[in-house]
Design goal:
The complex is a heterodimer. By secondary structure, chain A is an alpha/beta fold. Helices cover about 45% and strands about 10% of the residues of chain A. Chain A contains 15 helices and twelve strands. In chain A, helix 8 links the parallel strand 3 and strand 4. In chain A, helix 5 packs across helix 12, helix 7 crosses helix 8 and helix 7 packs across helix 11. The relative contact order of chain A is 0.16. The mean pLDDT of chain A is about 95. By secondary structure, chain B is an alpha+beta fold. Chain B folds into two domains: about 40 residues; about 80 residues, Alpha-Beta Plaits. Helix content of chain B is about 35%, strand content about 20%. Chain B is built from five helices and six strands. In chain B, the strands form two sheets. In chain B, strands 2-3-1-4 form a four-stranded antiparallel sheet. In chain B, strands 5-6 form a two-stranded antiparallel ribbon. In chain B, a hairpin with a 2-residue loop joins strand 5 and strand 6. In chain B, helix 2 packs across helix 3. The radius of gyration of chain B is 21 Å and the shape is extended. Chain B starts with a helix and ends in a 14-residue tail after the last strand. The model of chain B has no long low-confidence stretch (mean pLDDT about 95). Classes of the chains: A alpha/beta, B alpha+beta. Chains A and B meet through helix 4 and helix 13 of A and helix 2 of B. Bound molecules: pyridoxal-5'-phosphate. Pyridoxal-5'-phosphate binds next to helix 7 of chain A. The site of pyridoxal-5'-phosphate has 13 residues of chain A, from helix 7.
Chain lengths: ~400, ~160
């Protein structure tokens, strides 16, 4: 027994961790989380999820399903009922037909869907063009799938939109896919139909697949969302990833879904069946309710975000943190240019001095440096108080 | 106009400055529209929802359902308007179903409410019968759940 103990301590478990996992950078969010968590009464604008509780009619549908005993596995692809509901929803929302048997997969959040998409399409060394600043999971997921993320920056002078030129610069003969993530976390940028037309041309010319994370699609404030899949001839090239986390305030339920070409959905389903088996049954039951009867509550939440968006963005500009108008999601992405501080310095000092937590923009990629991600998925009172404190923070420095 | 009303119906103390910021409009325009709505009676009154149970003085409330004889010229209006004049009466509504009029009455004690109904309401001409329901506990008023517990906390920073 003693011998055995010795052998284990000589093992150095950390050295046994796979090289590609060791190479994965730790999340910049984590460090901030620990700092904020230790501080009492901080106002957090760092939360990437709705502040609403899931509407009661959705929670109630789940409770009822439990009472009725729906606690077994479902089909790998997801309950037929839910897939049909998703197909109806896609028809109504995007005007596109997806076959509920072959072209829809229910996943454990968009998070799983992102991972599946990259694992299903990437061979070692295949490249994916990733516009950033972007959500933190894409690059690590591509790495884990054996692919290479080829990031391209977007910038505030162009409202953080992706341009065809930027994609073209990044394309090599190993480029297999383009990632799109609009409405965007962290910038709040959207891509209009006109913007997407230009992207479609480059995609077709270079014979790319597109992985499109549209989890914020219901949260747009100037115009209805357009998906690249809606453009002529694009449906088969685009793997649409979506879910209920943001639109229906259902982050903890872990429900997402994939819409795509049968061959691609089948490939993703193969991985899903061996790693996840199926998405949680009770959450699938709730998702049926959310998608078939949840529009009214969803619109109410969106309206509230829109009110807060106006209040907060005009407030940021008033106190001197220039912010372009975010047209989707629930983030404002103001610039700290002219304060003489980096995003990280600004965020850390703001937290320590005024107890307001924001996320430094560089967490979302190098081109996010010089910006702060502020979530307005928090109460009006907190937003007003946060603006006051940020103003104090700036005026103490004569800014 | 509708947007201003929705904000005010949630929070009567929202100032024109706050409302303008929420709607992305000019403060003067918002202030003028509010004034116009006050003048034209679209906005009747700004009220405060008080949880009297928590304040040191609590009241007794009752819902009184009435059967009323229809009057030739005035229908139910004459009786309803008479009832509405009493300051103990908080609301008066014409309703469908078994009864014709429903009124809420506030008093200091059950006895006070019961006597008020017996003496002032039941004796009105045209009132055929009354049925008094004392309110024992209120769970939700004006869209606010009075028994609600605090929301569970979210993680402080997430991606
Ligand atoms: C752009 C984006 N995609 C995906 C996710 C994860 O979504 P889900 O809860 O569906 O896994 C998030 C969550 O923050 C996100 O911002």
């Amino acid at each position: 027994m003693k011998m055995r103990m010795k052998e284990i301590s000589a093992l150095r478990p950390e050295a046994k961790v796979a090289r590609k996992v060791r190479a994965m950078p730790p999340s910049g969010i984590r460090k901030f989380f620990d700092m904020v968590n230790e501080m009492d009464e901080a106002i957090s604008l760092g939360v990437g999820e709705p502040d609403f509780v899931t509407p009661w009619h959705i929670r109630e549908a789940c409770i009822y399903s439990l009472e009725e005993g729906y606690t077994s596995y479902t089909s790998n692809k997801g309950m037929p009922d839910l897939r049909e509901t998703i197909a109806d929803h896609a028809k109504g929302w995007l005007g596109l037909d997806y076959d509920s048997e072959e072209e829809i997969l229910v996943t454990t959040g968009v998070s799983e869907a992102v991972d599946l998409a990259f694992r299903a399409i990437l061979d070692p060394g295949d490249e994916v063009v990733v516009p950033e600043p972007c959500y933190v999971a894409y690059v690590p997921d591509i790495m884990m799938a054996g692919g290479v993320a080829s990031t391209v920056s977007t910038d505030s002078s162009n409202q953080f939109k992706l341009t065809p030129e930027a994609i073209e610069c990044a394309i090599t003969d190993r480029t297999k896919a383009l990632l799109l993530s609009y409405p965007n976390n962290p910038t709040g940028a959207i891509m209009t139909r006109g913007d997407l037309e230009e992207i479609a041309d480059v995609v077709v010319e270079n014979d790319l697949l597109v992985v499109s994370d549209e989890v914020y699609d219901k949260l747009t404030y100037s115009e209805k969302h357009t998906s690249l899949a809606q453009l002529d001839g694009m449906q088969e090239r685009v793997i649409v990833l979506n879910g209920l986390s943001k639109s229906h305030a259902m982050t903890g339920w872990r429900i997402g879904y994939v819409l795509g070409d049968p061959a691609l959905v089948a490939a993703m389903t193969k991985i899903h069946q061996y790693t996840m088996l199926c998405a949680p049954t009770m959450a699938q039951m709730a998702a049926v309710e959310a998608l078939s009867r949840g529009d009214e509550e969803m619109l109410k939440m969106r309206h509230e975000y829109d009110l807060r968006r106006r209040l907060f963005v005009s407030g940021l500009n008033r106190i001197g943190l220039t912010c372009f108008e975010p047209k989707g999601a629930f983030y404002a992405f103001p610039s700290v240019e002219g304060t003489g501080m980096t995003s990280a310095e600004f965020s850390e000092m703001l937290l320590n001095e005024q107890k307001v937590a924001v996320v430094p923009g560089d967490v979302f990629g190098p081109s996010g440096e010089g910006f702060l991600r502020c979530s307005y998925a928090t109460s009006r009172e907190e937003l007003i108080e946060a603006l006051d404190r940020m103003e104090t923070f700036l005026s103490k420095r004569g800014l | 106009m509708r947007e201003i009303l929705e904000i005010l119906s949630e929070n009567a103390r929202a100032t024109p400055t706050e409302i303008a910021a929420l709607l992305g409009r000019e403060v003067e325009d918002v202030a003028r529209e509010i004034r116009e709505m006050e003048d034209s009676g679209v906005i009747r009154k700004y009220i405060t929802l008080v949880d009297w149970e928590k304040a040191d003085r609590s009241y007794v409330y009752a819902v009184i359902e009435l059967k009323v004889a229809l009057q030739r010229n005035t229908g139910y209006d004459a009786v309803a308007e008479r009832i509405a004049r009493f300051s103990d009466v908080e609301s008066v509504r014409l309703i469908s179903g078994d009864h014709d009029i429903s009124a809420t009455v506030r008093g200091r004690s059950m006895k006070e409410v019961a006597f008020f109904v017996a003496e002032k309401i039941a004796t009105l001409e045209g009132v055929q019968s009354t049925c008094t329901h004392f309110i024992l506990k209120s769970y939700k008023e004006h869209g606010v759940i009075l028994t609600e517990k605090p929301k569970p906390k979210r993680l402080v920073v997430t991606a």
